[in-house]
């Protein structure tokens, strides 16, 4: 796409859109206030397009804009071209990307009572949250329910770690544990110290896996709601696993059990 | 420990030890030049002590020092107390810890030809490297071999993600793939697109798992050395998994196979 017909150019640092982009890129919770998401770099933008997401704004650096594939701006409601140094300034990354999309925050989807699900209970780390979303999508889980106190799922760091998984999942965030009452699939709690060994367990399918806080694990109240309790054998005797590693193991076991049927 | 007998105090920002600590805390490869490692926070320091590591220097903030457990300085060759604001300045963390250890970089251990192992092939991300070390230790792997081009394993971010696993593993880093010739255990390559399905595979034990670069996977040359090739079924149809998630799944499957014997 070498023509820039229809694109507006930004060359002032004080432009209001740039101010918003800086907030969205650098403050994990800013999207909740601004109602928009910043998707940086071609990999994530392609993943969004592949799922028919329509960007509100396609943003390009001045030097990248002439070589940008047409599909990246054709789908967008608006196209904006930003001076290179200003767009670099927006990014929270060490290697800023020369393009990105602004998306409207998706409306919260209805909870599917029978879908294979993952429940995040006050998970703190953005990288862990993104990695779990990626594993959930890979292993055929349809929805992720993030209880209040969990990292903001549409934050840039979670989006990067999710590698596009966000667009293939129903993401229900900021909700109380009471919403779990409407799930008809059994709740399976992971624990570092109790329950059946995963490698011997008969896993229910579909089910909803509970993944807990990095330090504290799944809360006692939530554990009490679960019908199944699972732990992962650690022959090396370490005290615990990273929660995203534990989630990968459990979600794979669920997926593999299904494949073996 | 309320006495500070034997501790030296630092109150100048230009103190040479503080300069070194800042480098060690903030530059992932600094330990290779300086020959020392910075271990920040009580969790990692306890993990080192539990494995009988003797710190070269125990470092405390002035306000924390009076309440620091005696064991933390008794084992150290030297104890240093630093003005609170200066120690905060050392840290690369959002919430700097009030204590840490300086360790000498361990001598490179001999490679054990028959040990269950993990081989890292140009793995880039520090968080992934640390998470894989943690999973390796949990699932009974004895050594990790990091080929040239892999993230520096004793960097602060890898240490934090490893959560103490470093001290229970033989870590052999910065080596050429030729060292793998001396392994007598079979090499098992992970792939996103070829090989046997993990959930149906007969895994050799002990073995050495090859985990590759985040974008490129295991190199073709290394894949060609492997006697087994394994991939992970992804019923959700995503293109690939995070490498630390894939490693967790594979290493757990190896460990579980052993437990089931």
From TrEMBL, chains A, B:
Keywords: Methyltransferase, Transferase. Pfam families: SpoU_methylase. Residues 117-252 form the tRNA/rRNA methyltransferase SpoU type domain. One of its GO terms (biological process) is RNA processing. The keyword Methyltransferase applies. One of its GO terms (molecular function) is RNA methyltransferase activity. InterPro entries: Alpha/beta_knot_MTases, Ribosomal_eL30-like_sf, rRNA_Methyltransferase, SpoU_MeTrfase, tRNA_m1G_MTases_N. PANTHER family: RRNA METHYLTRANSFERASE 3, RRNA METHYLTRANSFERASE 3, MITOCHONDRIAL. This is TrmH family RNA methyltransferase.
């Amino acid at each position: 796409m070498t023509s820039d017909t229809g694109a507006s150019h930004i060359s002032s640092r004080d432009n209001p859109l740039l101010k918003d982009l800086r907030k969205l890129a650098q403050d994990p919770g800013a999207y909740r206030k601004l109602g928009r998401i910043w998707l940086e770099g071609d990999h994530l933008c392609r993943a969004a397009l592949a799922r028919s997401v329509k960007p509100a704004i396609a943003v390009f650096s001045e030097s990248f804009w002439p070589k940008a594939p047409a599909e990246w701006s054709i789908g967008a409601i608006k196209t904006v071209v930003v001076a290179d140094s200003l767009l670099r300034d927006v990014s929270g990354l060490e290697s800023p990307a020369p393009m990105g999309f602004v998306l409207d925050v998706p409306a919260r989807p209805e909870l599917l009572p029978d879908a294979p699900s993952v429940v995040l209970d006050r998970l703190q780390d953005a990288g862990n949250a993104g990695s779990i979303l990626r594993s959930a999508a890979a292993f055929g889980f349809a929805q992720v329910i993030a209880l209040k106190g969990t990292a903001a799922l549409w934050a840039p760091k979670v989006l990067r770690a999710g590698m596009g998984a966000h667009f293939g999942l129903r993401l229900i965030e900021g909700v109380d544990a009471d919403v779990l009452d409407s799930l008809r699939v059994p709740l399976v709690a992971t624990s570092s110290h109790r329950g059946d060994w995963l490698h011997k367990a008969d896993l229910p399918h579909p089910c909803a896996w509970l993944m807990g806080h990095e330090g504290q694990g799944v809360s006692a109240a939530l554990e009490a709601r679960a019908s199944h309790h699972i732990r992962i054998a650690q022959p090396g005797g370490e005290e615990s696993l990273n929660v995203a590693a534990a989630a990968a193991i459990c979600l794979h076991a669920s997926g593999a059990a299904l494949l073996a049927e």
